[in-house]
Design a protein that fits this description.
The chain has about 120 residues and is mainly α. The chain has one helix and no strands.
Length: about 120
């Protein structure tokens, strides 16, 4: 009977130990479930962040496209303006050339008149 009592105590101790181990495994399982939920939340947050980055990338692409269009338009306007200025400068250059020709003609006529005036005696 003593062996039977000892055996029952050992079985009872093993049963208690088994229950403690089961309880501990249950706690570990709960903890893993909490960790899994936390990882799922983190995964969802990363997906949201990825979507936000995609939106930002699209916005940057739109801005790049808009800036390229604005640059192209500005270049076209500047080319048109420079062309207009070039035409004005050509017109001014032609006017200056014509003015120079007129001045040269008038100077030559003035020189001719001065020569003629030198041949006439002074009326004193």
């Amino acid at each position: 009977m003593e062996q039977e009592t000892m055996l029952k105590e050992i079985l009872h101790a093993l049963d208690l130990h088994s229950k403690q181990i089961d309880k501990r495994f249950g706690q570990i399982d709960e903890r893993f479930e909490q960790i899994d939920k936390r990882f799922e939340q983190i995964d969802e947050r990363f997906e949201q962040i990825d979507k936000r980055f995609e939106q930002v990338d699209k916005r940057f692409e739109q801005m790049d496209s808009k800036m390229d269009n604005m640059r192209t338009e500005l270049e076209a306007r500047m080319d048109k303006g420079f062309e207009h200025l070039g035409k004005k400068i050509d017109g001014v250059r032609a006017d200056l050339t014509e003015t120079q020709s007129t001045t040269d003609f008038l100077l030559s006529k003035t020189a001719q008149h001065e020569k003629k005036l030198r041949y006439y005696p002074d009326p004193q």
